[in-house]
Amino acid sequence: MGAFEIITSVLGSLSKLSTADWALEQQLMPHINAVTKHMPALANTKIQKWARTLGDVFYRHGRYKQAMELYERALAGYEKALGVDHPDTLATVNDMAIVFRSQGQYEKALGLYERALAGYEKALGVDHPSTLTTVNNMAMVFNRQGQYEKALGFYERALAGKEKALGADHPSTLATVHNMAFVFRRQGQYEKALALYERALAGKEKALGVDHPDTLTTVHNMAFVFRRQGQYEKALGLFERALAGREKALGIDHPDTQDTLRSLINLHQSTGQTEQAQSLQARLHAPKSPGN
């Protein structure tokens, strides 16, 4: 077994739900970079699966260009080998849409999501978890575009289906709960948002751990709501928890870590704590990314 197979085998065995696995991906990144440059040219479904696995890693670590290149390779291979409506093909279409969404390219994301959703509904059914995940992801785009009623409608469909198929405390269900809270937050309905964030946080801490990146995303977003309500001490404590956890799990250069750092600096500035803001400013160097 060569280096490429070893690396992809290790990455494929990770749960992606633990901070330890996340840290291991970081440690393996130099090797991941190396094997990606020398990925076999052979076009078969095994190679496409490996390409998706590597693309997932790059995406999770904020390296969107490399992720998209690997997803595009995987998609071309799957379409040729399995057909345009095969679940593996559609999963790759969904992956590409996520990258576009993360970069704020919402129309491109929606076009791909619509293709994935139509294919999943036909191949797997309207209540299959993969179908519902795509419904959830489309709602995220509608929310970003300010189409709140449409977003809530899609989230409600996704949540009802996931609670039935996966359970109320499954990480995928909790992700939809978190996302619904974001819609209410953007509309200024802070109490509704906090109630959903609290449910999501309690479930994520139990299912994933207190320092998992997904848990910390909910911590960050709760802090944002408290800041908007003028509850600055609560916001400060949560932003500091999110920053410490994200820096440890993701690194200071990750867009999510930089987003929390930026939010913490802004909070210090708005409350007249200029020294604290300036001490953090030197660590702020990544461009702002469209995150929750």
In brief:
This protein is mainly alpha-helical and 292 residues long. It has helices at residues 3-13, 19-37, 45-60, 64-81, 87-102, 106-123, 129-144, 148-165, 171-186, 190-207, 213-228, 232-250, 255-270, 274-281.
SSE map:
Blueprint: H1 3-13, H2 19-37, H3 45-60, H4 64-81, H5 87-102, H6 106-123, H7 129-144, H8 148-165, H9 171-186, H10 190-207, H11 213-228, H12 232-250, H13 255-270, H14 274-281
Helix pairs in contact: 1-2, 1-3, 3-4, 4-5, 5-6, 5-7, 6-7, 7-8, 7-9, 8-9, 9-10, 9-11, 10-11, 11-12, 11-13, 12-13, 13-14
Number of helices: 14
Q: What overall geometry do the principal axes of the alpha carbons give?
A: globular
Task: State the helicity in percent bands.
Answer: over 70%
- Strand residues, percent: under 5%
Summarize the helix and strand pattern as letters: HHHHHHHHHHHHHH
Query: How confident is the prediction overall: mean pLDDT?
Result: 87
What CATH architecture label of the domain at 1-125 applies? Alpha Horseshoe
Largest sheet descriptor: none
CATH topology of the domain at 1-125: Serine Threonine Protein Phosphatase 5, Tetratricopeptide repeat
The CATH superfamily label of the domain at 1-125 reads Tetratricopeptide repeat domain
What is the C-alpha radius of gyration, as a whole number of Å?
19 Å
**Which residues sit in consecutive blocks of at least 5 with pLDDT less than 50?**
288-292
Structural class, judged by helices and strands?
mainly alpha
Cα distance spanning the termini? 41 Å
DSSP E strands, number: 0
